[in-house]
């Protein structure tokens, strides 16, 4: 988990280009554009809005959101990467953008390792293995695995799209447990949940934030979370390891990023503000209500975290067989 201090050393962010070499003393003196590479209403959008409200208050200029969805976040990320490195374009960059996309796509319009100034970690949340209570008799993970293996026509698992952590987790789970599982991609949890509740889909290992309400209502059984420890908002639900599925720590996470080359004083100014945001108990409560945790890190730690995760996701993409053009 990320702490409110430096965790490890990592290469420094790209140096400022002479055209934008400046102190952060007069920044920002106009609104900051925040590009959200995902549609309105999703967890990335909702959590970015909370942070933007805080950054607006702390830095004295509006942080104005602009949704640029499409191509699994690649359209919005390209817009951030191609913007002027003056600090006036920023946005959330998720695990899908920084640690998965390069193994999934034959071509990308940006380089995840070179085209961004990563400012801080932003949020983290686990995936949760859920199944509809009405159609799923098992009450424990091991019972669920045995039940899934016994299904004559196998099982199906949903995800918000090819190459998402939900897709990769479902594929890896079925591969390791020798379950005959069929991936069914949807546009998002808003379509996955009704499919499960109607009995048309067996299970999902998807972002916890999307499933908190139906779990609380008892309409979904939560068998395990994919975080290293139990999650605060679901303390009675075991981790995958506790449930008998070892070596399955996979979280969804998001950084706050800008184009490569933004002057370091500006990076540090935003980073300091985000540290204050993550330390605010009221902000943490807002994040926890969505199933996430607001986190902070140094720019170097965030960059290193994305790099450490790449080999794991490269292997998960290989197992899934996913490939996008």
From TrEMBL:
Q: Which InterPro entries match?
A: BUG, Bug_dom1
Query: Which residues are in coiled coils?
Result: none
Q: Please tell me whether the keyword Signal is annotated for this protein.
A: yes
Is this entry keyworded Signal?
yes
Extent of the signal sequence: 1-21
Which Pfam families does the UniProt entry name for this protein?
A: TctC
Q: Which UniProt keywords apply?
A: Signal
What does the similarity note say? Belongs to the UPF0065 (bug) family.
Q: What is this protein called?
A: Tripartite tricarboxylate transporter substrate binding protein
């Amino acid at each position: 988990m990320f702490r409110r201090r430096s965790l490890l050393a990592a290469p420094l962010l790209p140096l400022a280009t002479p055209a934008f070499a400046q102190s952060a003393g007069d920044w920002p003196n106009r609104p900051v554009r925040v590009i959200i590479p995902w549609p309105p209403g999703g967890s990335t959008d909702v959590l970015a809005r909370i942070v933007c409200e805080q950054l607006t208050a702390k830095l004295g200029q509006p942080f104005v959101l602009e949704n640029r969805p499409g191509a699994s976040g690649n359209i919005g990320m390209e817009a951030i990467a191609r913007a002027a490195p003056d600090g006036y374009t920023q946005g959330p960059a998720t695990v899908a953008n920084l640690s998965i996309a390069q193994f999934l796509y034959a071509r990308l319009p940006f380089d995840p390792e070179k085209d961004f100034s990563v400012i801080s970690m932003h949020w983290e949340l686990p995936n949760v293995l859920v199944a509809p209570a009405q159609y799923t008799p098992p009450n424990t993970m091991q019972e669920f695995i045995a039940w899934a293996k016994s299904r004559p026509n196998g099982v199906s698992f949903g995800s918000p799209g090819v190459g998402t952590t939900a897709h990769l987790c479902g594929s890896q789970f079925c591969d390791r447990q020798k379950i005959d599982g069929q991936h069914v991609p949807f546009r998002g949890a808003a379509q996955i949940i009704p499919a499960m509740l109607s009995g048309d889909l067996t299970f999902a290992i998807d972002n916890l934030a999307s499933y908190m309400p139906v779990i609380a209502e008892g309409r979904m059984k939560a068998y395990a979370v994919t975080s290293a420890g139990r999650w605060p908002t679901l303390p009675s639900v075991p981790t995958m390891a506790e449930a008998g599925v070892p070596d399955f720590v996979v979280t969804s996470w998001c950084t706050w990023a800008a184009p490569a080359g933004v002057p370091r004083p500006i990076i540090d100014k935003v980073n300091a503000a985000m540290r204050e945001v993550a330390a605010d108990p009221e902000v943490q409560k807002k994040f926890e209500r969505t199933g996430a945790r607001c986190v902070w890190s140094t720019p170097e730690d965030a960059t290193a975290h994305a790099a450490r995760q790449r080999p794991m996701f490269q292997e998960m993409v290989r197992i899934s067989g996913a490939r996008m053009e």
